[in-house]
Amino acid sequence: MLCLPLSFDEESSIGVQLKRSNILRMALAGSDSMEEGKGETFLLKAIKIGGVVVLYWFISITMVFLNNYLLDSKDLDAPLFVTFYQCLVTVGLCYGMHLLSHLCPGVIDFPSVKFDLKVCREVLPLSIVFIGMITFNNLCLKHVGVAFYTVGRSLSTVFNVLLSYVILKQTTSFYAILCCGIILGGFWLGVDQEGVAGSLSWMGVFFGVLASACVSLNAIFTKRVMPAVDGNIWKLSFYNNINACILFLPLILVFGEVGHLVHFSRLGDPTFWGMMTLGGVFGFAIGYVTGLQIKFTSPLTHNVSGTAKACAQTVIAVVYNQSSKSFLWWTSNLMVLGGSSAYTWVKGMEMKKVHIPQEESKEKLLGEKSDAGV
């Protein structure tokens, strides 16, 4: 799946986009790690978990900086083409994995991804939202850079709450709304501090807000189209990116990016295409390592790891760019990350409260059946 740089909010909303069981299928679907883990020593388990977390951090952070490098090029102003090419790479990788799964069935487990026009049409509404999400996401990164990216793209959770109420009529608890208030406060403080520092890009902030809204819409539409792809995330990725490739072509023409490509001096440079392809590969890989991290730890631990990763990513960007940030600027980042983490914890506790009574009622029903001799 093309997974362009994600803010922590977006990563923490994975549970909204897909059921956790579907995310777990993104990892090694054929392995029985839970059963195998029973005979493992604590040290071996710790090494495995540590390795998975390090892999997730490496791929996620590298992907953000790589995409920033590609989008921030002064020689090529063609963000739509960059995104189109990464979608194309994702389609190619999905088909390649499909072929390898047939050649090595015992080693690689990947679903069949044969092209079906009917499925493409059913996935199309999601693909339109998906295009908006990845395009605005890239444009936000292009204009604000990596350091402010976490704050610039921090409103996904807020839009999740808002759109869930407007579209799905789902209400949210007071504590969850309070967490959203902290995120909003951090966002506005961050915007204010960027303005004080003279580095604020209102265009970048605008694209960040649009990207956050599209992330939430993408979550809602994903739920609706999953049955069309048999609930399989890789099939969804395949058809979603095929549609995106087709829909990007007229957009590239309309926004005049063809002219930029024609006059681009490095169009025949293998290094440039290598970096472009690597960006697509990392986008594909992030979907796998996200599922792998959840599989070896837990959804909550994944979100904690995502928070820490976002902090590290921001610090690396500030150090790399040799920037000097104010105390309030760092406070805005902490508010965004803290509010997002608190929201995840609150929703997790609410889900437990709903889950436990259901389990108790099931046990009670089974007990009644047993007493009745059923």
Based on the model shown, name its key terms.
disordered N terminus, single chain, TPT_transporter, 16 helices, Sugar_P_trans_dom, 374 residues, mainly alpha, globular, membrane
Q: Can you offer a commentary on this structure?
A:
The longest helix is centred in the last third of the chain and has 45 residues, at 327-371. This protein is 77% helix and 0% strand. Mean pLDDT is 81; it is low at 3-36 and 365-374. The radius of gyration is 22 Å and the shape is globular. The protein is built from 16 helices and no strands. With 374 residues, it is mainly α.
Describe what is shown at a glance.
This protein is mainly alpha-helical and 374 residues long. It contains 16 helices and no strands.
Structural class: mainly alpha
**End-to-end distance:** 48 Å
> How much helix, percentage-wise, in residues?
over 70%
Question: Unreliable runs, pLDDT <50, ≥5 residues?
Answer: 3-36, 365-374
**Mean of residue pLDDT?**
81
Shape type: globular
The fraction of residues in strands falls at: under 5%
Gyration radius, in Å: 22 Å
GO cellular component, one term: membrane
Family: Belongs to the TPT transporter family. SLC35E subfamily.
Membrane topology: Multi-pass membrane protein
Domain Sugar phosphate transporter: 48-319
